[in-house]
Structure formats: structure tokens, C-alpha cells
Design a protein that fits this description.
Length: 309
């Protein structure tokens, strides 16, 4: 008897099968890929831009003042030029050079502050949730108290005392206010995991407390840790930009927030110099959209019910 020929799949069935194969690996979901692509684009701007563009144009007076991007004219009728393709600011600094240096600097502050805050949160969260007792009470009360303190207000006072600070010092100051949420999240997860069977088996086998926490339990929390890290990066960048727009933070290092502050302080809105404040704002929007998409993609990784075919 001859074999019955297979019925060809319809277009809808092929699309469904393709989506099903895609979710065999949840790390390849579109939100995560698009979000990571946007963030990598910011990094690429800093790396490739340094190789292809003259960064000496970032200094005051290196170009004509208030030149618009190519294809536009300013209020004086001056048109954009190839020498400054995205315009210049009121001090004669090239906007492209400012963005090439400033965007990665802003992302660096967010990443560094979050890495320090997450490290503190992982250590304190695991210690509180696994050890328990008075240690848990102390860490929990400390995080509850710290989370009620408005970080921007404290940082304004601290940075006013310090004056001009470096990117690293600002990251350290911000990190002191972003460890509380990871600590609370990790503590809650560890409390629900410490009675699991594999943890009890590790205890019976004589494994040390640090081995159980960081070798047995930590790998199971990786999706949650990534999600908490991305949320912390967003908070850190918002805090850093808020400080810079107020005129605090690094004074001599270009950042997106510092560029916006200088534009506002120089009356760029009144003079219709939209590229001076608009381009850094656009890059910040791209950065936040990328972080949001990565966070949503990580939610799909950690929660299978969010993966829709």
C-alpha cells in the first residue's frame, strides 16, 4: 500500500510552528532581542564613533555656534554643514561628539551603580532569607528604612557638598540607594526556596551555607536577578539624569543629562535650538525603551505563561 502524501501546511500553521520553535529557547523572544539591540546600538555609538569621528570637536569653541543639523536652518538662516552633521551647541561644541561621549557615559553610570547595588542586594538578600533569625530582622528593617528615604533629595545634598564628582563617584553614591529592592526580592525568593528538596539534600550532604546559597540556589534565580538588574539600571539612569539636569554630577565630563542642563540653562528652548536638547532626550528615550523591552523579555523567560503563541 502506497504511503499517503503529507498534507502541505497552511500559512497560519507554518507561522504557529515557527513561533513554537522560537519559544523552545525563551531567551530568543523578540522583546529581549529588540531591547538588547537598542542598548547595543548605544554602546556601538560610543565605540564606532570614537574611531570614525573627531572627538576634539567636543571642546568649547571648536566649531561655529548654534549650527543646526543638516537639512535645517536656525533663526539666523544658517544651514547645517557636513562638518557638524547634527549641529553644534551654544558653546561651539559638536553635538555628534557630545552624543558619542555622553550616551555611553550615561549608560555606564546606570550599569555600574546597578552592578554594585545588585551585588550588595544578592549578598544581603541571600543572607537574610537563608540564615534568618536576627540577621534577617536586621537586614529587613534596614532595607525597609532605606527604601522610604527619597534618594534624589539626599544625593542633591551630598553632591552639593562634594561639588564636581567623577562618573565613578556618582555611580557609587547612586548605588547606595538601589540595593534595597534587589535585597527584598531575593530575600522573598530565598524564603520560598530554602525548604525545597534539593536544598535539603545539599544540607544533608554537608554542603556549606555559602555553597548552598550561591551554587545551588543562585542559578535558579538568574532570570529574576536579570529583571531586577534591568529595573535597577533604569532607576540609576533616571537618578543620574535628574542630578545632572539640576546642575550637579560631573561638570567636565559630557553626559546626556549634563547636555540637557546646559541647553536649558542657555535658553535653547526660547531660541528654537531643538537639536541641543532634543537629540540627547531622544537617545535617553531609546535607552529607556531598550531597557523596558529587555525587562519584558526577561519576564517571558522567567514566566512561561507570558509566552503567547
Amino acid at each position: 500500500m502506497a504511503d499517503t502524501p503529507a498534507t502541505p501546511l497552511t500559512r497560519a500553521e507554518k507561522a504557529t510552528a515557527k513561533r513554537a520553535r522560537r519559544f523552545d529557547n525563551p531567551w530568543l523572544n523578540p522583546k529581549l532581542i529588540w531591547g538588547a539591540s537598542l542598548l547595543l546600538g548605544i554602546v556601538a555609538l560610543g565605540i564606532i564613533g570614537r574611531l570614525l569621528w573627531n572627538l576634539e570637536l567636543v571642546f568649547t569653541g571648536s566649531s561655529l555656534l548654534k549650527i543646526p543639523p543638516i537639512g535645517f536652518e536656525n533663526l539666523r538662516g544658517q544651514a547645517g554643514t557636513l562638518a557638524n552633521p547634527v549641529g553644534t551647541d551654544g558653546a561651539g561644541r559638536d553635538m555628534l561628539a557630545l552624543l558619542i561621549i555622553g550616551a555611553p557615559n550615561t549608560l555606564f553610570v546606570g550599569l555600574m551603580a546597578s552592578m554594585i547595588g545588585m551585588t550588595i542586594g544578592i549578598v544581603l538578600g541571600f543572607t537574610a532569607g537563608f540564615v534568618g533569625g536576627r540577621t534577617d530582622d536586621t537586614i529587613r528593617v534596614l532595607s525597609d528604612v532605606m527604601i522610604t528615604i527619597p534618594p534624589l533629595l539626599i544625593l542633591v545634598v551630598v553632591q552639593s557638598v562634594f561639588g564636581d564628582v567623577s562618573l565613578t563617584l556618582m555611580s557609587l553614591l547612586i548605588a547606595g540607594f538601589v540595593w534595597q529592592s534587589p535585597t527584598r526580592l531575593i530575600r522573598a525568593q530565598v524564603l520560598s526556596m530554602r525548604e525545597a528538596g534539593y536544598v535539603q539534600m545539599a544540607r544533608l550532604s554537608g554542603a556549606s551555607t555559602s555553597h548552598i546559597m550561591f551554587k545551588e540556589m543562585l542559578p535558579n534565580l538568574i532570570p529574576y536577578l536579570f529583571g531586577s538588574f534591568i529595573a535597577s539600571v533604569t532607576t540609576s539612569i533616571v537618578t543620574a539624569v535628574g542630578l545632572e539636569v539640576l546642575g550637579l554630577g560631573p561638570q567636565r565630563v559630557p553626559t546626556l543629562g549634563r547636555t540637557i542642563y546646559e541647553a536649558i540653562n542657555a535658553g535653547a528652548l526660547i531660541q528654537n535650538l531643538w537639536w541641543w536638547w532634543g537629540l540627547p532626550t531622544l537617545l535617553l528615550a531609546v535607552m529607556f525603551i531598550g531597557l523596558l523591552l529587555v525587562n519584558l523579555g526577561l519576564d517571558e523567560v522567567s514566566n512561561p505563561r507570558l509566552r503567547k503563541l
